[in-house]
Amino acid sequence: MSLEKFMNEAISPWMRHDGPDSDIVLSSRIRLARNFSSQPFPTVARGEPLEEVLSFMDEHFTDSSFREYEGLQLVKMDDLQPIEKRVLVEKHLVSPHLIEDRENAATIISENEQVSIMVNEEDHLRIQLYFPGFQLDKALEQASQLDDWLEEKIDYAFDEERGYLTACPTNVGTGMRASVMMHLPALALTKQINRMTPAINQLGLVVRGIYGEGSEAVGNLFQISNQITLGKSEEDIVEDLHSVVQQLIEQERKARQTLMNRSPVQLEDRIYRSYGTLRHSRVITSKEAAGCLSDLRLGIDLDFLKDIPRTILNELMVLTQPGFLQQYAGESLDPEDRDIKRATLIRERINLEDDN
Amino acid sequence: MQCQRCEKYPATVHLTQVINGEKNEVHLCDSCAKEQGYMNQEEEKFSLNDLLSGLFHMEGSGSAGKLFQGNKQQQKESLQCSGCGLTYQEFTKAGKFGCATCYETFNERLDPILKRVHSGNTTHHGKVPKRAGGDLNLRRDIEKHREKLHQLINQEEFEEAAKVRDEIRTLEEELNQDKGGDS
């Protein structure tokens, strides 16, 4: 398969578009946890009840469309190869939890891959909607409409006092997790993010590094999301998150400006060294690649590097994950071979820009 | 300090969770921490659920809790959900419900748990589904109108208030019709 074709399959169509504040906010997501009132939750249910949920969803929603989310397709986890499942996780279309031997697990994905409805995860349904850039309000509005559309056919588990009933007490109420993926290289470089995190936690919001292990944020990518789902309306939760993200954007822009003013040469050096590494390395770990890609992206945002598209960070962060590398290679690879294949793929990808 | 779970060994693992300024502390010995999953280095494995099930176990520990042990403790542990068969013990161990009925079955025990997780909140104030919510949307709408009516009366805007009063009447009629349809 050619790299271009592979990339087209690897990158969700919506990711190719820029959204508001796309230089810092990569994507906005709303996730709603919902359950059928008539069936036990996947936490305890085995066999028949889960089969019924799955076949109900298949019958009513396969090949259906909601607004611009057309061509909904149901993909059963049992029908996929391990590498294919991993690829879905790396594209954030399903959670790691869904592919861990869950019975009757599936996902319903729209053609543009903005919508993914996980079936029989921890809850019967996990409705996810993605938008590029910083578009939480729009994401909430449309996720809620999508939810209404599903409710026309499904009897949800809902209680007047507790709200939408979920398997885990941490999701009950709105069942909503709103999150934003941010690239914060300047706040990370100046260690300011560590000081800001406790204050953000105080507001009932969580900051965590993605793609990293433990608290480390590989590639300076952070996810900010709400912790509390009960006692506040969806709009209030999103508003709180919105105002914190807005402040983080401003702080990140300020920190970038300060770096530019105080040590422009060092910054330029760092960016070009990373660029050099990505262009020429023959073996590269995912951690090193993520760090270099973050620098590269910063270099693009600060106009040091021209003629390289901004989406290269989103793209290569996904493409250089183990699942994708193995799919590209067409075989399973051990970690050492992956590091070689990763370096090759990155070089090819950057050369592609030179050819254009 | 002693481990608050086994109450035998010194606590070596200290966890503090702060949500909305409310602080929660968990103190455990090495082996309890491992059992509860706190010691695992992988991020995904250190989940909120582990912390949650730790919180459930906190109930009944401490001096105030001990007073209530005995009969009440036994009653609590023998509680079983008629919907899915989940026992209270299983619920606290996994930190997860088994079905919608579990919320009724364990209702009495839920407030303290929900308060800890949702910084003091126990009731839903968000979206109400169109069908499953029944007439709740309508009742909430009437409530909102009543508040508005009070405000307008206080501000002596009687003309506007009369309009809102009529709106409330229409909504109430709608509500009664819904109820009439059921009987």
From TrEMBL, chain A:
Motif RDXXRA motif of the pArg binding pocket involved in allosteric regulation, residue numbers: 338-343
Catalytic function, reaction form: L-arginyl-[protein] + ATP = N(omega)-phospho-L-arginyl-[protein] + ADP + H(+)
Domain Phosphagen kinase C-terminal positions: 24-255
Binding site for ATP: 27-31, 92, 126, 177-181, 208-213
Pfam families per record: ATP-gua_Ptrans
Gene Ontology molecular function, alphabetical: kinase activity
Activity: how regulated: Appears to be allosterically activated by the binding of pArg-containing polypeptides to the pArg-binding pocket localized in the C-terminal domain of McsB.
HAMAP family in the cross-refs: Prot_Arg_kinase
Similarity remark: Belongs to the ATP:guanido phosphotransferase family.
Function according to Swiss-Prot or TrEMBL: Catalyzes the specific phosphorylation of arginine residues in a large number of proteins. Is part of the bacterial stress response system. Protein arginine phosphorylation has a physiologically important role and is involved in the regulation of many critical cellular processes, such as protein homeostasis, motility, competence, and stringent and stress responses, by regulating gene expression and protein activity.
Protein's UniProt name: Protein-arginine kinase
Organism listed in the record: Salimicrobium album
Automatic annotation (TrEMBL), chain B:
Top-level lineage group: Bacteria
Keywords: Coiled coil, Kinase, Transferase
Coiled coil spans: 135-174
Pfam families assigned: UVR
Molecular function via GO: kinase activity
Domain UVR: residue ranges: 139-174
The keyword DNA repair belongs to this UniProt entry's keyword annotation: no
Protein name (record): Protein-arginine kinase activator protein McsA
Annotated source species: Salimicrobium album
